[in-house]
Design a protein that fits this description.
alpha+beta; 9 strands; single chain; 34% strand
Length: 208
């Protein structure tokens, strides 16, 4: 078995950043990846933190952006508005790497990118946005929020079309990446911050 110190990123900060993005791209494209469903945290209007698990749909290194899907009526949309802070936490079990991403979020409802994301979504995925009342509403009994006639079967395209009104995307522009690699020989931790003026990532080692 390979020794932790043999990992190309173990003592190489540039390689550590490469590994972080490799895992993010894997998380967006592989449903079995541990990073496919990270925790996403926002800040409510009362200053309290709010977290939820979300599906990572896309990671674009060239724009430092990650994409999630959301219900336009969800509370996190109000938290973020057009420039709210967002924190993303994921742990890749096999790689033994934790990623903490910090950035600025924005929610798009009517953009071309949102429309493309809707067109790519599965019928089952689109069905989620038919919930009535809105997600987070208080109800008197357990419910999925869906019409019982929509449960337990694959819907038709015309049936989920009204859900488009509730569908939105959350885009997060990543400004910091904190990388932590767990190894029995000694952990490694690094912080990468985007330098806007230099148009590059600046990395520094941290004590784990």
């Amino acid at each position: 078995m390979s020794n932790a110190s043999e990992k190309p990123f173990f003592n190489d900060i540039a390689a550590s950043l490469e590994e972080a993005w490799r895992l993010l791209l894997e998380g967006a494209n592989d449903r079995k990846s541990s990073l496919h469903t990270p925790a996403v945290a926002t800040v409510r209007s009362d200053g309290a933190p709010s977290q939820r698990i979300m599906v990572l749909r896309e990671a674009a290194r060239e724009t430092r952006t990650v994409r999630f899907h959301t219900d336009h009526r969800a509370s996190k949309v109000a938290d973020i508005n057009q420039s709210g802070p967002v924190s993303i936490l994921g742990y890749h079990r096999d790689a033994k790497i934790q990623l903490r991403l910090s950035g600025i979020g924005r929610v798009e409802h009517d953009s071309a990118v949102c429309e493309a994301a809707w067109n790519e979504a599965t019928l089952y995925g689109k069905r989620c946005y038919l919930a009535d009342p809105a997600p987070g509403s208080t109800v008197g009994a357990p419910t999925s929020g869906l019409d019982p006639l929509m449960e337990g079967r694959k819907p038709e395209g015309f049936e989920v079309a009204p859900a488009r009104e509730n569908f939105a995307i959350l885009l997060v522009e990543i400004r910091q990446i904190e990388w932590l690699y767990l190894a029995h020989t000694g952990h490694r931790r690094a912080l990468f911050t985007w330098n806007t003026s230099g148009n590059e990532w600046e990395g520094e080692w941290l004590v784990p």
